[in-house]
Amino acid sequence: MSEVIIYEYEGGVAVVVPAPDVDIKDVAARDIPQGCDYKIVDSAKLPDDRVFRGAWTTDCEVDMDKAKEIWLDKIRAVRNKRLAELDIEWMRAMENGENKEASNIAAVKQSLRDITERADIHKCKTASSLKKYWPQILEG
Q1: Residues 43-47: contacts with CB within 8 Å, 24+ apart?
Q2: What range defines the domain where residue 12 resides?
Q3: Same-domain status, 73 and 131
Q4: What is the tally of structural domains in the chain?
Q5: Which among 24, 28, 34, 89 would be 20 to 30 A from 72, CA to CA?
Q6: Does the pTM of the predicted model rise above 0.70?
Q7: For the chain (length 140 residues), average pLDDT per consecutive 10?
Q8: 53 in any annotated domain
């Protein structure tokens, strides 16, 4: 395994991987912004999963609050695409005078909008459990 330098930077965590055969303390002195506290850690301690890279901490953990926001952004991206598709279906139903169909589509759209407000995502306590959380309404 190899050692890396990890430090907080601009609201996230930066990881510096020195070249082989380079003194890591020299790299830290030269490359870490002045005033930043850093740690030298074994790279094997870094989280394995890069999905939540933006939620890593200098303790080599995943900040679950940040991870949930990252995951919600992924959900929002899929949801927004689905909402755009449903907008077209709703307009077609309205143009054709299919009020019941338009009403059904509107209900699905509201369910999609409510996805990010659901409490079940907050039950996830680990990054792996969070990755398994995917609202069924987004399937297919």
Answers
A1: 43/1, 43/2, 43/3, 43/4, 43/17, 44/1, 46/4, 46/6, 46/15, 47/127
A2: 3-46
A3: yes
A4: 2
A5: 89
A6: yes
A7: 89 92 92 91 91 94 95 95 97 96 96 88 92 88
A8: no
